[in-house]
Design brief:
Shape of chain B: elongated
Distance between the termini of chain B: 27 Å
Radius of gyration of chain B: 20 Å
Order of helices and strands of chain A: EEEHEEHEHHHEHEHEEHEHEEHEH
Oligomer: heterodimer
Number of helices of chain B: 12
Largest sheet of chain B: none
Structural class of chain A: alpha/beta
Helix content of chain A: 25-40%
Strand order of the largest sheet of chain A: 6-7-8-3-9-10
CATH architecture of the largest domain in chain A: 3-Layer(aba) Sandwich
Chain lengths: ~300, ~240
């Protein structure tokens, strides 16, 4: 649904986005992670035909973002939740959506139906006649999401959808995104929140001007640090640790009664390690696999460790 | 350009203005002051004041007063145009609108219409009050109705172009301003050439007769059409998102 090839954006001598190549499938939720200034918003703006690319190419649906004939078609098939909600604060929730329904040239009946459906879905129907300026941050964010969905878009771009929201409002927004995922909408989401990306996204890309890596959260965790096994013993001593190191394995965290071992293939390697531990006098209580978090991967990649 | 899109943008702005009564008051105040207060002043001077105006001098004063409709046309749209653009910039509501299928030209035309129609309607309404009251107060002294005449006709012909020019100047100013008041203050500078014109004609440097007013209307039309292209060049998606302060 979204394809980019060496997509690049320069502002004068500053390169904001450098040779990004990625593919997002129809119905996929793709998370774009990266620090501030990494180029996430600029990438979304290029894909939404808001700013022009400097080089490379990209398509949304079957349309080319650089083609002036295709640009209105792309804008018609997408929804965009911008980083700043940008609501018309003087207008009611209903009118905010009605205005956008008109911008997309939805007929009166269709507009009414969509507005009612979206406001009810997001729990704002009771507040439909209230001015958006009086809403809480969470309510404004929900209204902005409703606005991005007014045209029932095939592709939804969400720029930091839960930024600055309290935990309850974040959960409501996340749950709603998961509902959209069930509807097989293609969602391209910029986020800082790794936990959110891990819970919602099918795949994530980590961007720091260049796309550093891309894959499912699980793939990224595994590809970067391999797999880890935590062995709990009645007691850990130097002989036990040395026996593992002697086998050529890297030892991670060691406590009074546990030892973490980095492995490539725990299913094959675990039996030999356990034998070695027992031979060294260890009494094994428990063996569990521990994964690195997406946060570990992110920090390692972004910091260039 | 798609007129339906432009009208949808203008309609949205009108809806917002109905909630922003201060913007409406700022827009309609001057035409009504000129339209009602000036005839009352003339009436007082003509009929109530001991050292009053002679009937022969009244048409000259009426012509001078009516020039304020042209000056007003240059300054009144500033209130709406500044709010329309800088206000949206502050609310960060331009980006979502730019992500819709509407073209830059549709949005610019819509915003121009929204900033133009209310002031022009207010000016024309004010001018009706002005002409009616002036005729009412001066008929007995002059022995005929002074209005309507070609002089005010030429002013009212030039007024929408002066208003259009004001909106276009505001589009350009708004791209560099971050608050509504500064944009309004800068926009009102457009009034200066018109005030200069008014003073020059009052001081007798040249005569603003019907012919000269029609030439002025033509010049304003040409300048405002030319300025539309400058405003259009300023009002581009990428420019708005990346360069507007």
């Amino acid at each position: 649904m979204i394809d980019t090839e060496n997509l690049t954006k320069k502002f004068g001598s500053v390169t904001a986005v450098d040779s990004v190549t990625l593919h997002v499938d129809e119905g996929e939720v793709f998370g774009f992670l990266g620090p501030n200034g990494a180029g996430k918003t600029t990438t979304v703006r290029m894909l939404a035909c808001l700013v022009a690319k400097s080089s490379g190419s990209a398509t949304v649906g079957d349309y080319e973002i650089a083609s002036s004939a295709d640009q209105p078609k792309i804008r018609k098939m997408i929804g965009l939740l911008t980083e700043n909600v940008g609501l018309y604060e003087e207008l009611s929730a209903y009118d905010n959506l009605d205005v956008y329904g008109r911008f997309y040239k939805l007929g009166e009946q269709k507009r009414k139906e969509r507005i009612e459906y979206l406001l009810k879905m997001l729990g704002l129907w009771d507040k439909k006649d209230t001015a958006a300026g009086t809403f809480s941050k969470g309510m404004k964010q929900k209204l902005a999401i409703a606005r991005a969905l007014i045209n029932d878009p095939e592709v939804l771009f969400l720029d930091e959808p839960t930024a600055n929201l309290d935990p309850e409002a974040s959960k409501t927004v996340r749950d709603f995104i998961l509902e959209l995922k069930k509807e097989k909408k293609t969602i391209f989401m910029n986020t800082h929140l790794l936990d959110e990306a891990e819970r919602i996204c099918d795949r994530v890309g980590i961007l720091r001007t260049r796309l550093i890596t891309i894959g499912s959260p699980e793939e990224l965790r595994n590809s970067l640090s391999g797999r880890k096994v935590k062995v709990q013993l009645q007691q850990v001593n130097d002989a036990i640790v040395s026996s593992v190191k002697a086998m050529g394995y890297q030892v991670g965290e060691v406590t009074a009664n546990s030892i973490v071992v980095n492995l490539k293939d725990p299913e094959k390697e675990n039996p030999a390690i356990l034998r070695s531990l027992q031979t060294a006098g260890g009494n094994v209580v428990f063996v569990t696999e521990v994964g690195s978090s997406l946060e570990d991967v992110y920090l390692k990649l972004v910091r260039g460790e | 350009m798609d007129m339906q899109n432009a009208w949808n943008v203008a309609r949205k702005d009108f809806k917002i203005y109905t909630k922003k009564t201060s913007v409406i008051y700022a827009t309609v105040a001057m035409p009504f002051i000129v339209g009602i207060a000036f005839p009352l002043i003339l009436n007082y001077s003509l009929h109530k004041s001991a050292k009053g105006l002679t009937a022969a001098a009244a048409p000259g004063f009426m012509d001078s007063f009516s020039l304020w409709f042209l000056i007003g046309a240059a300054v009144i749209p500033t209130a709406i145009a500044s709010y329309s653009l800088v206000g949206e910039k502050i609310q960060k509501s331009l980006e979502p609108m730019l992500a819709t299928p509407m073209s830059d030209e549709d949005i610019l035309l819509g915003k121009t219409l929204a900033a133009l129609l209310i002031p022009v309607a207010a000016l024309y309404t004010g001018s009706i009050f002005f002409m009616t009251l002036m005729d009412y107060f001066t008929h007995s002294a002059l022995g005929y109705d002074y209005y309507p005449n070609w002089h005010i006709g030429a002013i009212l012909l030039a007024a929408p172009f002066a208003a259009l020019l004001s909106v276009e100047v505001n589009v350009i100013i708004s791209s560099r301003m971050t608050d509504v008041r500064s944009a309004q203050q800068s926009g009102t500078l457009l009034m200066l050439p018109f005030i200069g014109l008014f003073l020059a004609s009052e001081l007798g440097f040249f005569v603003l007769n019907d012919t000269n007013l029609l030439i002025l209307a033509g010049a304003l039309a040409a300048i405002s059409i030319g300025m539309f292209f400058v405003a259009k060049a300023t009002f581009r998606r990428e420019e708005i998102l990346t360069r507007w302060k």
